[in-house]
Amino acid sequence: MMTLRRFGTTLPSIPTAAAWALTDLAEARGKQELFTKQSPQKLKALREHAMIESAIASNRIEGITIDQDRVPAVLIGNAPLLRDRNELEVRGYRDALKMIHEKAKQLTISEETILKLHALCCPEAWDSGRYKEKDVDIIETFADGRSRIRFQSISAAQTPGAMRELVALWQDQLLHRQVPPLVLIAAFNLDFLCIHPFRDGNGRASRLMLLLQCYHLGLEVGRYISLERLIEENKERYYETLEQSSQGWHQGRHDPWPYINYVLFILKSACKEFERRVGQTKESKGAKAEFVIEAIRRQIGDFRLSDIERECPGVSREWIRVLLADMKARSEVTCRGRGPAARWRINPNKGTTPK
């Protein structure tokens, strides 16, 4: 909570690199909304692939792996019998992702949510969903067997209070919006990892919270591109920036920006990949027409052509007119008036009322 505590008393000066990343992310968020409305048929495969990649990568960062041949049974199906603890934890992470994807709006940023996500992603731990009961230091082990204490986390006795403060600071600062929300997400993530509230599974829980908080801010790229895979691909930088930003954290004298910049880099990379992959994914024949027709059928009462344009950004007015004319010829819609003022209405007798 030391980063958010500092931001609450002294407004930070945003470094140039972070400012540029925030600008790029604001632009990417606009494109994300366009893509998700324009190309709904393209996104199903990306969602399914991202779910698998995220569950595998987030666990693999922690040294938890499963046989590649077992991935379909563990993550795609619902095989009742899993072979070992690793498979249970990989599936548990999938279940946590599924909960976030489906219920993000109902999940508040709270201790209850954090404990629930930890319980899901660490289902086999004896203290799953509970804060640590003993002090736990972050140990780095070298290839030759040597080890060192890389960071001394908050004590077990102080952990519940630190987590309460972290959640309260997040809610307060997000409400006042004096610090860019994406900066707050990265700061929250840093403080969470420094508190190290659980005996095990802190990294996995932190990545789930990162995804959930992004959803709350309207940045849903993690639904289609695995943030966990990108973190794994840049794992050395992850550990390096975390160590840099945790030095002096207990005294509030740390520099949070190496780690904050890293998180912004991951989010920016995800947005770029999303834009590239949606552009490369082959769209099924007639997908755009289906998209427009579905938008028309969702209308209740009278509507104008401009209403459909708003729901289908990037689709030409001429194409919408063609589809409306075709539906009119089949008596699926009726039209009153002409030109821009024309009013359209679904004909319920043809069974095209909104479902």
Describe it for me?
The chain has 355 residues and is mainly alpha-helical. The chain folds into 2 domains: 2-280, Fic-like fold, CATH 1.10.3290; 287-350, Arc Repressor Mutant, subunit A (Orthogonal Bundle). 59% of the residues lie in helices and 5% in strands. The chain has 15 helices and 4 strands. It has a two-stranded antiparallel sheet with strand order 1-2. The protein has a two-stranded antiparallel sheet with strand order 3-4. A hairpin with a 6-residue loop joins strand 3 (333-336) and strand 4 (343-346).
Along the chain, the helix and strand elements come as HHHHHHEEHHHHHHHHHEE
CATH class of the largest domain: Mainly Alpha
What share of the residues does DSSP label as strand, in percent?
5-15%
Residue windows where pLDDT falls under 50 for at least 5 positions: 351-355
Mean pLDDT: 86
Query: Looking at CATH, which topology of the largest domain would you report?
Result: Fic-like fold
Terminal CA distance: 47 Å
- Strands of the widest sheet, in order across it, are 1-2
Q: What percent of residues adopt helix (DSSP H or I)?
A: 55-70%
Radius of gyration: 24 Å
Query: How many structural units, i.e. domains?
Result: 2
Let me know the number of strands.
4
Question: How are the SSEs placed, and which strands pair?
Answer:
Layout: H1 2-9, H2 16-38, H3 40-61, H4 71-76, H5 85-103, H6 111-121, E1 137-141, E2 147-152, H7 159-176, H8 181-195, H9 202-216, H10 227-233, H11 235-246, H12 257-280, H13 287-297, H14 305-311, H15 317-329, E3 333-336, E4 343-346
Antiparallel strand pairs: 1-2, 3-4
Helix pairs in contact: 1-7, 2-12, 3-5, 3-10, 5-6, 5-9, 6-9, 7-8, 8-9, 8-12, 11-12, 13-15
